[in-house]
Amino acid sequence: MKTLIRLEITRALRNKKFMFFSVIYPPALYVLIAGSNSNARMPGLDIDLSLYYMVAMAAFGAMTAVLMGNSERIAREREAGWVRQLRLTALPGRGYVAAKIASAATVSLPSIVLVLLTGAVAMGVRLDAWQWVAVGLSSWAGSFVFAALGVAIGYLATGDAVRPLTMLFYFGLAFLGGLWLPSSSLPGWVRDIGAWVPTHAYTALGQAVEAGHAPHLGDVGLLAGYLVLFASAAAWLYRRDTRKA
Fold it and tell me: Which residues, by range, are in coiled-coil regions (predicted)?
């Protein structure tokens, strides 16, 4: 499993297109959205716009790396026969799923770090040392949830259908979770739905730290529940794919 994790990380780092969209795109989007209004206050929130979107874009970048990269890569590997070859080795099914989740979450780190550096250097965000560490760790830990979702989608969809299905989850979760617009600016029925999606709890972890508080147990519990759900679905879909093969 360790060998597979190293292989997956190396493959992702060599993919220039993937690295652009998962590492460069989020901080660039952060500057584009908040650059000219960095000192403005978020509507309905007692927080600077630059601070709000720093956490939002760190989450967005991590989700891009683990969700988009995982799902499409797995669907292509299934069609190319790579997964079938792995089944001939001593690697167990749970090891394959765990390796995919771990390697994807590891690759999300550069995006998170670059967004935080952009906030500190270019946007003038100021936090205590523990807050910087806590925001980074919570953003990274939360990305495991979407890495598991990416594995599940990769086994659920074919190579032709995986991209539109992934994009549906990608943009839907980003919108409902408040990564582009604060939840307070959305209609009431959208907020009611968004309160139960994993991206809402994901961004809430960093926002709590920004305010100087510990993450709420409800948000941590919701993310843990989704991690178990998505990882279990990925493992079940992997076993189903094995039986078909």
Answer: none
